[in-house]
Amino acid sequence: MNTSNYTRKLRQGESTVWWWRAPIAVDTTTATANFRLTAGTQTLVLAPVTADLTVSVIAPDRRTLTITGPAAAPSGPQGIRGEAYLETPGDGDFSVQVAQLTATTAVLAEPLPHDIDLATNGTLRFAWLGAAVTVGDVTAAIERNVPTHVTYQFRFGADLWGIPSQDEMLVHVVRQPFRTGVAHADVAALMPSVGARIAQRAQDYRPQIEWVGDLIEQRVHADLSARGAFEDDIDGSRLRGAHAAWVISCILEDIDTDLADRWMARFEKAYAAAMTGIWLDLDHDGAVDDGEILDIGNPLGDAGGTFTATPDPNRIIGRVNVGH
Length: 324
Known about the structure:
Elements: E1 9-11, E2 16-21, E3 32-37, E4 40-45, E5 47-48, E6 53-58, E7 64-68, E8 83-88, E9 92-101, E10 105-108, E11 122-126, E12 128-133, E13 143-155, E14 161-174, H1 184-190, H2 206-224, H3 240-252, H4 257-274, E15 278-279, E16 293-294
Parallel strand pairs: 1-14
Antiparallel strand pairs: 2-12, 3-4, 3-13, 5-12, 6-7, 6-11, 7-10, 8-9, 8-11, 9-10, 13-14, 15-16
């Protein structure tokens, strides 16, 4: 998963889980995902990452919830992936972040904004829902721009529910989804002082890494579009250093803007260097063939050539300030 509210890339030929994050509290029994593939539309039923939990007590700290739920403590829907919605009988719904989850308690990352009347039980509903996708339904063949929509029903309490809604997005089935491989350890090693700046509601810098990763993916997409290629066709690991530098700049933006600007300049240099002599898998076969180690530049002005059905890797249409 990433910072998107759904899984954008699926690996061709593999079974996995497609995830969607509900924008507000929804009926977790009625959500479906529909993939409009060339081979035909596939409809999958989405299930919550863990069952809805009954909340019987909210402690005076307004963070610790006494819950009744599965026999064993759920593992996974807490911390960075702990987005959830607390439905209360008298005070409405609250968007919360579950920092810790056991078999009997859910501890929120931040206190609720005010005291809650819990004369009767409340409900904790998790935001992430998913469905298994397989070679037999979605991932059989490489296919970009698959129109996908999720149908679901809003809930605003026990008496105001069943309000239909729909989210639409494009999903891609690709040989190798773009990623640089940057982890929190890379960011902390590059600038150790940022390790002490992790926010109370966070576990590490994965959210910033994923957010910047999305931006780099868009930058690469723009730089490759003139070649008829996509970000998933390149060796993303070459951009590992550039990615880490941009993450540090992002972290420093509200602390030291001058230092953030210097790290952003380092990103630009590292990005330009990485895109020199990078592998571009033009035929999507996973092998490095002749003519697939290329310099991906961003020249000024426009240059043209003979436009053919097969992209010419030596023809670049110049762009000014593409990306960001």
